[in-house]
Amino acid sequence: MSLTKTVLIVDDNKVNRQMLSLILGSQYEILEAENGEAALEVLQNSYAGISVILLDLVMPIMNGYELLAEIHRDAFLRNIPVVVISQNEVLDATAKAKALSYGVQDFIQMACGPDEIKRRVENTVLLKKTANILDLVQRDTLTGLYSKKHFYSLAEKTIKQNPEQEYDIICCDIERFKLVNELFGFSEGDALLKYVALMIRDKFQRGGICGRIGGDIFAVLVEHREEYNENDFFDCVEYINRFNENLHSVIKFGVYTIDDATLPVSIMCARACLALESIKGKYASYLAFYKDDIRQKLLDEQFILSNMKTALNNKEFVVYFQPKYDLMNEKICSAEALVRWMHPEKGMITPNRFIKIFEDNGFITELDLYVLEESCRWIRSWMDRGNPAIPVSVNMSRADIYNPNIDSILLSLLEKYGLTPSHIFIEITESAYTENSEQIINGIKQLKELGFTIEMDDFGSGYSSLNMLSELPIDVLKLDMRFVQDQEKFRDKRSVMSFVISLAKWMNLKVIAEGVETEEQVNLLKILGCHSVQGYFFSKPLPLHSFEELINEVNLSLIDSEAELIATSNENILKLDIENKYMLIFDPNSEDFERFQSVFAHKYALLQVKTLPELHDILKEEKSNIAILIFSVANDVTEEDLHEISYLTKQFDIPMITIHETTELVAKAVSFGALDCIFKPYLSETLDNTVNNTLCRMQTSQFQKEVQFNDAIAEMKKRAEVDFLSGLLNRSELKIRIQDFFNHNQEFTVLREICCASFLKKRPE
């Protein structure tokens, strides 16, 4: 760029242009334009080097006033001083006032002589140079609005000088502005900022003070209005959308009505910005007002963010357990791990105050893994004390599933505590599937292949649930009972619930109802055939010691009553019938036999086989004498081998426990029928508990089926279904009667398969 000062002469009279060129040519470089349109083109190409514009107001095509209006609209062009030139006549007051309103600096008559013209032009250039130096501090160089510091100063001065006047601070922000720079370049971002600055100035400058106080944040001080509404700012939204349709730019406004004039203007602007932050990401919301609860919410969030890592290190996060009950026997069958923050000064901080914040900043992954490990630690401790395993559901966020190493992280934790994927259920909220569903589904499939049970939490709270069910690799549907809390619509929603539960069963999904709070809901769920329930009607989330007490109180009392009932019909059914029974060890590498012999020789006669043919032969010969099969899984085991072993154990109804050196084959072993798994290295004292727990589960399951079957028969007899059991019906007729009975007695829906299978086995064609 040339260091020589440049004068642009805009006049339709060629003689006047030549005369001014002769007068100023020795000091300035001269550019000429014969009308406003030509001048505008010159300005757009060379505005940075032009020191002053000499302008005739009366011209064809685009006159001087029209050119002044265009110059005034551009943040860069309006910094160039303009001097109006005229012939011998003096401009009237109206013409001068109109020109001055556009920022004209001076007026020169051609008749005043060459020296006067030179002096007036030179003074204008010097004044503008001085103003430019001042503008480096007062003006934002990109947009031409006041700089942050000067805006604060002018606003504070205005407020103090007018104590009787009420004012508002309005701040606006361009959403996702950084993406504009990243996708379209910084030049496009700068152009957008200038475009918005023009809109701010045109809308608010008359009677207001406008400034740029941040990268894409603008602030305005205006006289207070009693009411604002979305329509007042909708024209701004439409204006910014016209800049570039491909950008899809959105602008938000926050208003702070100044109720404390002693506050620094920077704090006032911060409050207006807090208001607009509250509507970021909300479609069709362009305007928000500052309220004190917004400030308090931000302070709370800042406290949480500042203390979260310390809290995790100090174990201030405490895991609570909410039991899940089997509706058939009202026994605790599993639990959900829920986290609470026990702050030493603030007391309990509930999850609704920190979970969303942790999800937004990524800390949720660390917290989820902490809850997972605490759950694994408790399960291991519970089982080591001789108790049957109780699976625990842990919540996982989208961030956890997106983690490419989540499978190895989970398996290493299970291996650390000697657990299997059957001990931990993975809960994913329904809303997680609605964002980047393909990546979530792939991540869930990976976990399911490892053997984890997948639960969809909060089902019924979203809008696309039924559409997603066919795509999702889930095992359990958690039905949100808030869906039916409105008693006026209870009947209609009952029909929807019935449909959802039936649909889930048709898709081989287990159904858990959460948020169960009333006996009416419990009775409805029993009628509809729901499997399990969770909610305050049975128990709120409990700290660990209370949870264990509840398990003992509920489950042990049920076991005692069951044992008393069984003793009446078969006094030996719950005793582990292991006298003169074999423990069969399938150990291809002969590494575990001696270990098991040292632990179980006093209880069982131990048999060892090393090959599949040997296993097949001994199962066939001793099937009624084998209490349990222990399979030490070698690294070279094939899926065909596992299929064969699974077939044999199911054929002979023999429970199986697998032993593993690594976690790679755990999922396959569980899917092929292993009731429990043991990881190496294992403790001898835990082996006995694992075997006993497995045998107890096996016998309890068989007992429950018999009890259910007998109850169904008794009910049928009571309802005069005598011919149902008579020998007069053939197999097809019997099947129709069974279906008809259950269709009219929905509370026994869950028994249908048991009864059908049992009766039809015994009936000839």
How many strands appear in the DSSP assignment?
Answer: 24
How large is the share of residues in beta strands?
A: 15-25%
Shape: elongated
Unreliable stretches, pLDDT < 50, 5 or more residues? 558-578, 719-729, 746-765
- Our measurement of the CA-to-CA distance between the termini, rounded to an integer number of angstroms, reads 104 Å
Continuous helix count:
28
The main pleated sheet reads as: 8 strands, mixed, barrel
Radius of gyration over C-alpha positions, nearest whole angstrom: 41 Å
Within the largest sheet, what's the order of strands?
11-12-14-15-16-17-18-19
Mean pLDDT: 78
Characterization of the model:
With 765 residues, the chain is of the alpha/beta class. The chain contains 28 helices and 24 strands. The chain has an eight-stranded mixed beta barrel with strand order 11-12-14-15-16-17-18-19, surrounded by four helices. A five-stranded parallel sheet has the order 2-1-3-4-5, with helices on both faces. A five-stranded mixed sheet has the order 7-8-6-9-10, with helices on both faces.
